[in-house]
Each structure stands twice: as structure tokens, then as C-alpha cells.
User: Fold these one by one.
Assistant:
Number 1:
Amino acid sequence: MKISLGKKYAIFQRAELLSARDLLQRAAAICGLFLLVHLAGFREYTGILNGTIGSMALGWKLSTFLAVFYIVLYLAFVIVVPVLVLAAGILVVWGRLRNKAEE
Amino acid sequence: MKTRIKRILTGVAALAAAALIWLPCMHFIFIKPVSHFRQERGLSPEARQLAAWHMRLWTDPALRATELNKMRVSNAEWDFMGRSYLVWSLANMALRDPASRPLYLQTMDQIIDETLELEKQKGMYFFLMPYAKEGIYVIRPPHSLFLDGEIALMLASRRVVQEKPEYKALLTDRVNGIVARFQKSRHMLLESYPDECWMFDHCVALDAIRTADYLDGTDHSKLIRDWISMAKVKLVDPKSGLLISSFTTDGEPLAGPEGSSIWMVSHSLQLLDADFARDQYERARRQLGAITLGFGYAHEWPESWKGQANIDSGPIVPVFDVSAGSSGMAFIGASTFADDTFLTALAATLDFAGFPSRTGGRLKYCASNQVGDAAMLYAATLGPLWEKVKTGAKP
């Protein structure tokens, strides 16, 4: 019997909007993207925050674009990801409490 | 449909609750004890790592050229100020860490010699912004107090750590030149740019004169007292009580009180008039400093003054009115006046939004540049140099 990747790994299945799984999937996506830009060295371009060009070779426009891309993902990683994970936890706990009350 | 709306509302409520939990707690992952940034004796871990990055820059010409050129594209002053802050930091580090003194002295000499050579070969405009060439200096021949003051303080700092006979005449010439121009100026106000004088540069120059007095037994205490008295009357913004940043040679204000200037000014004043220095720091702390959700930062202007973002203030973050320039310089003020609460909160912001890069025991802040990192190193190490000059301990 063949089992599709989606069925085997529930985390990859499309979740209902704002469900606990949906929030965790979004958090994981942000983490993945941030990891990519971090490993790619985009942090080096954030000097634009004080008016310094990130790279003479790449010029102002591209340096600024890479810096903004990195900064947005970084802020999402440190601010949004923990909120998504905490919210997912709250939803799980809330669901369990509600189920218990219904029983 | 009803179930879907209910689920979405529950999700939104969970997100709101999570944000209310996370946002006030977020600073805990960035906050460190103040001793991580600055210590009373010896060197803090932050200072050691920042210093390691700068020492690498000064032993790797290609890397140094890359970093300095990146700054010079925006502002040639930063190239010069990065040198000054590093030399002053190394002087404090040499006094804090005698075992590494030979290495620090060697680096200080290398920076000073290269800077003097560049000034000699390319002229003072090499370290100034292009508009310096567009006007005419009121006092002739043209001199920039920005360069003269910082170079004099570099030479003096080096000599405080250990005498170097070659630098004695260079310091005396530089100080005598500044003093002569002070005496020539009707209002004791000297230009850094054509008919444009800066508070920052005056205070640094007076620090250099004060340090030269300590080193060579000269006495310019009257000049210093007269200048401070004049500044208290003419150069204080009446609404905030803070010293203004820039003015003409007649004392007409060009810019009001600014965070990018006043934090360093309060530090410089500590060597000249300790009570006035503390007064300026406390006013700046009340009107420019802020801590929100555990993160410290500083505004560029007090509420009573409206200004436009510029090369010194750096970009202004809306809503919170955060100035990158003022927030960076606030480290120097907070460190000078041992304001540990503010310093710890500022350091948390630096770790959060300064994008630190730590490799091989070296630290740099990617959101900063060489001059920003050098100013940070100065904030982490300042103290012993001023203390030695103030107490009159033998050089």
C-alpha cells in the first residue's frame, strides 16, 4: 500500500485557517525562510540601517533590497514565530479543556 | 459557516493572547548583565570581542579598505571618527589591561601615524563632507576643529598611556593652534565647516587641551572655564536646557539639541565641568532616553524641538521615534554616568536590532559600521583615561 507524503507527515497537510496546525505550519515556514537568508549571509547587508552601503559590488539598490528582505524575516522570526507557537499552544489547551467540559 | 467564523475568532483571540504574553517577555532573551558590556576593572566580554574585530581590521589592509570605503561612500567623517574612537578606546583598554598594552600602543601608533599622513598628503578635506569646500571659512587660514580636536585627543590619549617623545611636539603644535584660534575668535567659537561650529568638536578639543595640561604642565584652566561659562549662557536651548549641537561663529543656532551629539558632549564635559556634565546627562536621559518593553533607545530631539532626519541622526524609526545615531551614542552617556538600567536596556536593543555577528571570538554589529562599533567599544571601555587626567595621577 502506498502512503502519500501528505498522509504520512500530517504537518505537510493543508490545515484549516487559524487552527493550531495552521499556525505551526506558518511558524515553520518563517523559520525555514529565515534560516535560508541567514545562511546566505544577508545579515551583512543590514548596515543600511545606519546609512552604510552593504556591499560596494552590489550597489545601493540590491544591498537595500537584501537588507530589507532579511530584516522583515528576522523580525518575523523573533516576534511573529513565538506568537504563532504560543497561540497554537493556547488553541490546543483551549480545545482540550472544551472537550473535557463537553464530556 | 458558523463553525468557521467561530474558529477564526478563536484563532485571533489566541494570537492576541500570545502577543500579550510574548511582547513583554521578548527582551529577556536579549538582556544580559551590565558586566557583559562594561566592567569597572578589566575588560568585559563585549569589549574583548569588539576589540578583536577592530584589531583584525588594522592587521588586514584589504579588509580595512573594504570597511572604510563602505563608510566613505556615505560620509568621509566616519572614516576619521572611527579612527578617533578606536584610539581613545585602546588608550582606556591599555590602562585596564596592562598585559596587552604593547599591542594596543602599537595599534594606536599605526592609526595615528596613518591618519596624520593622510591629513598631510590629502589635506583636511579628505576627512570632511564635500560641502566643506563649498563655503569660505571665517577664520583664516581654514582649520577644522573637528580634525584638530580629535587628532589632539588621539595624541594626548596615547601619551597618557605611555610617553612618546615624537608626539609631544605634535600635540603641543595642535593645542597651541587651537588655543590661538580661540583667542582670535570674537565669541570663542571655532569652525569645523565654513561658518559652522559643533558642540561635540568644541568639547573634544577642550578635553585635548585639558589632557595636554595634565601631560605637559601647561595651564589653560581659565580658557576652559570661560568657554563653559559662555556656553551656558549662549549655547543652551532654553526650552530643554540642553546644549545645542551646531551654531555659527557668532553663536547663532544652526541645529538644536540633538541626541547624536549630547550624549558624547556630556561625556566630554565630565573632564571639564563634572556638575554641568551630570546636569546635561540627566536632562538628556529624561528628554531623549526611553525604555519600552525592556528595550532601551533614544530620540534625536526633545519634544520641544522639531528636526529632520540627517546623516548624524540616522534613520528615525516611526511611532517610537527611535534614532539610530542617538541610540548608539546613548551608550557613551549611560556608561559614563554608570546608568546601569539604561545601559542594560540599550544593550538588549543592540542585541535585538544591531544584528551582532560573532565569529572566532570577534564581534561586529552588521547594522552598524566601523565607526559605530568603535563608539560602542569606547562606551564599553571608557573611564580610566578620564580618571587619570582628573585625579592628576602621574602619566
Number 2:
Amino acid sequence: MTRSGAIIVAIVVVAALTAPWLLPWDAATQDLPNRLQGPTWQHWFGLDELGRDILARVLLGARVSLMVGSVVVGVSSILGMAIGGVSGYYGGWIDQSIGRVMDVLMAFPGMLLAIALVAVLGPSLVNVVLALAVIGWVGYARLVRGQVLRAREFEYVTAAKALGAGTARVLMRHVLPTALPPLLVQATLGMAGAILSEAALSFLGLGVQPPTPSWGTMINGGRVHLLDAPHLTIFPGLFLAIVVLGFNFLGDGLRDALDPHRK
Amino acid sequence: MLRYFVRRVLLTVPVLLGVATLVFSLIHLVPGDPAQAMMGDGASPQDVAELRAKLGLDQPLLAQYVSFLRHAVTGDLGVSFRTGQPVTLMIVERIPATAELAVAAMLVAVMLAIPLGVVAAVWRGTAIDYGAMTFALAGVSIPNFWLGPLLAIVFAVELGWLPVSGRGTLAHLVLPAISLGLALAAILARMTRASLLDELNELYVRAARARGVSNAASITRHALGNSLVPLLTIIALQFGAVLTGAVITETIFAWPGIGRLLIQSIGFRDYPMVQGCILLIAVTYVSVNLITDLMYGFIDPRIRLE
């Protein structure tokens, strides 16, 4: 399962990065006389309503999805690690205050808060990343806090303190590294979540704006032509599902590999 | 027992206050003047000033906050900018549709997930298990905004078995409920499998087998019931995902619920309505979690004694 996930993710990353050199078609080039044409030997995924090559747009959309996923996961995990680490290590009123903020953010189901934030800030790629990071860090913080609460009682941490190591050194060198394996699993599954959320927001018209290709925007645009040109919807959705499945396989496999209880 | 209930309810109050504060601050996150944003660039300064006064945006921030909380507690969420109707009234009218869809989706999920999870657990490590779990993981990965239109093409357009959109008969509910419930089914199937495997290793199940109880009876009469208890929490937690998913499903199938109202209101920059919908969904989610916790305390004495 891990291997299948890794292979899927690797293929998509390589295809997204090398798309401009792999394909003879540019994602913006229009072939209006053949608009909505189905898959052919020339255009494997067919053409969209403006005669643009769907394969080129799907691969360019992969870049957007992977970029959003990486930035959201990166920002959320760093924030979550810092906040969760401080919360768990210091405890007391700091932990209580951070805990209440997390409770409030967790009170908003799924990506509802992201929808609300993008609705007021305005639809754009930057605001999508911002909104997903605002809701994303909480999960990482809770995970890291739990790990830190456990790790701070370890004898080698007490020994480090007794040897005169400062708080920052104890946290960075001895406590936080224990949270890395579960954090890696959560980050991998978080990539799948972030990619799906970006696509969902773009589908609702709140994310990436045309003409920049995004899988969500492409699926939404294709709905008008579901009957006469279903390939407009099928291919971006299929790619989205495969990539999310790849990250889910990878995350699940990593969790099994890193957790001795699951072996 | 009563002490546990009161303590759990009191713990919810600060969360609800935090939710209300965050929802209140939403309109103040609008870049520039929210009243100007709602009316557009072509609006006259008088009209904008009038709307600002109507929304109370000309008041000091603290006064606005106190007023928002006071009105929210009494169920007054303001007036829709688009229709001029009370926000609460418009939301209340949509609640039955969303509730119907959410319950139907959860039923679909439970009906699919429990047999799938049981089959996977009973035949653990076989091709059946791998097949069921791959199907479950695929279910989590397939976005409902892609699955919905595809289901509509096949079952509504090509086969003509079900209506494409709208609400009315039971037939209208089938496609939105499947589209919304599949991801939840996938999560529940995985949880059912894990939970049942745990129970099958318990001593009471082994003792039952040792007494000569058949494999099927030890699962259905003994292990299955207990393995479903943890699912209660997962179902409650996933209720939030169902509510968020309903925003998309209602948009796809023109289902006249709160989710569709929210997306329409975002399009019209009807911020009071957006605030109202977000607040209602979040409060519903918090309430469902509270009820689940209380039920859990009722079912499992260890929790209320903690």
C-alpha cells in the first residue's frame, strides 16, 4: 500500500514538474474550431470549451494542487509544532489558553471556517492557502502537544535539564523530535486533505480563479457540458481522486510502518 | 450522573462564546468597508452610510459585539441584505431540507459501512479484506463534487431512474444522499473493522467460542454490539463533515438547504446571512458533539466517573 501510494505520488509530481517539456500543447493554446472535442490520439484527454488541451491543463492543475498542499501542510505543521510544543511543555495557563483557542477552531466542522474566511477575504489562491492553514494547524498542535506531554517526562529529558540545557534546546533537540514520526503521517494525510479542500473551494468558485487551471475549477466548468462533453469533468476528477488516494495510501502505509502496535 | 451532565454542558458555554466571537469578527475581516463591498462600487455614499447604520457598523466595536451576542442569544441574526427578510427565518425554512439530507446520507453510510467493515474483519488478511479496505480508502479519496455529477449522468440522464435535482420525493433524495454518504461510509467501514477486530480478541468472545458458540453467533450476538459503541463518537464527529459536505452536495443537486443558501449568500455578499449560516452550522455541530458526550456518559459509566 505504501509502495503504491509512493509510486502514484512520484508519478504525479514528476508529470506536474515536467509537463511543459513533455507535452507539445500549451495549457493556454486555443483550438476553437475543435472545442469540446473528445479524446483523440492528438489530444489524449480531449479539448475544453475554449479548445484548450485538457491533459495540459490537468497537469498544470496538478502543480497548483501540489503547491497548495505543500504550503498548507508546511505552514500548518510548523505552526502546529511550535504552538503544540509550547502548550505541552509549559502547561498551566499557557496550555489552557491555547487549548481554548483550539476548542473554538475545532468547533467549526471540516472546512466550514475556510469557506467563511475565503468568503469574506475574497476568492484567490493566497486566501485559500491562508484559510486552510488557519484551520490546519490545530490538528498538528493537538498531536504535538500530546507527544510533548509524554516526552517531557522521559528520563533523558530530565537528564538534559540537569546538565543545564536551556528550554529551547530541550524542546528542539530532545522533546519535539519524538513527535516527528506521527507528524510525518499526519502531514502525508494532510496533503490529501489540503488538495481536496483546495479543489472543493475552487469548485465552489472560492478558490483559484480562471484562467489558472485548478482541478476544482475544471470540474465545475465541465458541469455545464456534462451531457455533450463529459470528458471535461471526468479527467480532472479522476486525477484528483488518484492523487488523493496516493497520499492516503502513503499516509496509511507510513502509519502502519511507524507504529509498532499496528504491525 | 447529573454532575457529569452539568459539567459537560458548562464546558460548552465558552466554546459557543468563542464561536460567536469568531463569527462576529468575520464581517470585520472584509477588506475595506463591508457596507461598500456589499453594495458594490456603483452605490452612492448615502446608500452605503444607510446600510452601515442598518448593520450597526457605525457603532463602536464593543457595542457591535455586545449587540451581536444579545441578539444571537434571542435568535435574532439580523436581516438579509439581499431579501430584506430576517436571517433566522430564512435559515429555519431551510433546516428541514438539510436535516433530511444529512440523516439520509448518514443512513446510507451506516448501511454500507457496517457490512463492509464486518466482512473485512471476519476475513482479515484475505483478498476480501484488502478489497473492502481499498474500496473504503477509494471512497474517502473520491470528491463528492465529482461523484455527484457522475451519478447524475448515469442514473438521472442516461438511465432516467432518478431526478437530476431538486427536492420533493424520496427519489430526489437518493443521489444526493449517496454522493454525500459515500466518504462517510468509507471512514465508518475502516472504524468498524478496527473496532470489531479489537472485540474479537477480547476474552468474553473467546470464552463464548470455547463454550461452543458458533463463529457467526459469537460475532453477531457478542462482539458486534460492543464494537459499534466507539462508532457513535465517529458518527458524531463525522456529522460535521456531513454538514460541510452538504454545502457542496446541495449546490450540485440544487437541494434547497442551508448549504446552498450559504453559497448563494456568498455570491451576493450577503454577509449577515453568511454569518447566520456559519453560526447555525457550528452551533449544531457543537450541540451534536455535546449530545454524543452525554450519551456516551450514559452508556459507559467509566466516562462520567472520570
